[in-house]
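Progress against Task 2.4 (sequence-to-structure conversion) is shown through the following example record, which the project officer requested during the mid-term review.
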Amino acid sequence: MSKVYIPSSGPDDWQRFLAEPEKQWRRGFSARTVAYSWEAANGFPPEIEALFVNSGVNGFQEVELLIAIPEYKVLLPPIQGHPSQNDVFALAKAAHGRLIALAVEAKVSEPFGPTFDEWRANATPGKTEREEFLRSKLGLKDRAIGPIRYQLMHRLASALLEAERFNADHAALIVHSFSQQDEWFNDFSSFLALYGAKGRIGELVRLGVLDQIPTYAGWARGDKRFLDS
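Structure tokens generated for the chain above:
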């Protein structure tokens, strides 16, 4: 994967990075909606900034978006396997120059995909290697993860990997959902429960120190006006 990134001239530039550009770039779907939301913001979309400002975490009241990269792929073991493709990867600066690495998963009404048990059915050596990596990286070695959505696990792992790569002080998984009915929030809540955490819409919660990095997760409800963009 190239490490050269081209500045965006508008939301339509995001389309070409999709796995299926013609199929996924549709009004009312997450890929297009999140592009218009982020491009319209002067920094973070306000609902994502509010997650940090209202978190009660010391230093998060001053958060500045440094860079946002759409459809950002993070390689996970085994390297020849499928990468974790973040709808947005972002680096932010909090107070005192502390960096936050954010993996953003955008949703409208799309589900999170298969559970972990469904994903690892007919397990291959590659899937076994990835399971061992995810359990270790996410501090889930002895947890029952079968009914948890696989997408949430590998997305959080990508935030941690990039936090390490950029020497960031914090990592965060953010679900940026434009569903006004908060579809699939129960799946997100089940994921948080692995860490003894309870989440609410618009709230950033601490999952703990994972792989020596303070780690958070939050669900931001996006502005519905971008569904028609």
